[in-house]
Design brief:
alpha+beta, 23% helix
């Protein structure tokens, strides 16, 4: 079967992207960038830290008040809260990975001292209900 002279293939004439597709992609990109900027500009003052020892939360620390403290159970491990963030500043563990982690401040960040069975976890103060995620990246 041969083609007629005046007939064109419909796939040949169709553009890969239409003007409306480009506008829609631009709107979606602008929305994504504005949501990212809004979330990343939120102050860390809305966060707290959980100190977990032996798999259980033993203390919730407000990150807005600068201080240095340790747990009665582990007096050789020292924590420091400064500028809305928290860190292990001293530990009697051999490798010192927890100390070298430095300060953490964003919800979802964690630091751990495995030899001492201690962990720090940053949480939002306005915690979601059970079953809901507590961080969205």
């Amino acid at each position: 079967m041969s083609r007629q002279e005046g007939t064109q293939d419909p796939m040949r004439k169709r553009k890969l992207t239409k003007r409306s597709d480009i506008i829609l992609i631009g709107i979606l990109l602008a929305a994504a960038v504005s949501v990212y900027l809004f979330v990343s500009s939120q102050p860390a003052g809305g966060a707290a830290a959980e100190v977990i020892y032996g798999g259980k939360v033993v203390m919730t620390v407000d990150l807005t008040k600068d201080r240095t403290f340790s747990l009665p159970e582990k007096p050789n491990v020292v924590f420091q809260v400064k500028n809305d963030s928290i860190a292990f500043t001293k530990s009697d563990c051999p490798d010192q990975i927890c100390v070298h982690t430095g300060f953490i401040s964003k919800p979802g960040q964690m630091a751990a001292c495995l030899p001492n069975d201690l962990m720090l976890k940053i949480i939002s103060k306005g915690r979601p209900s059970p079953g809901q995620p507590d961080i969205v990246n």
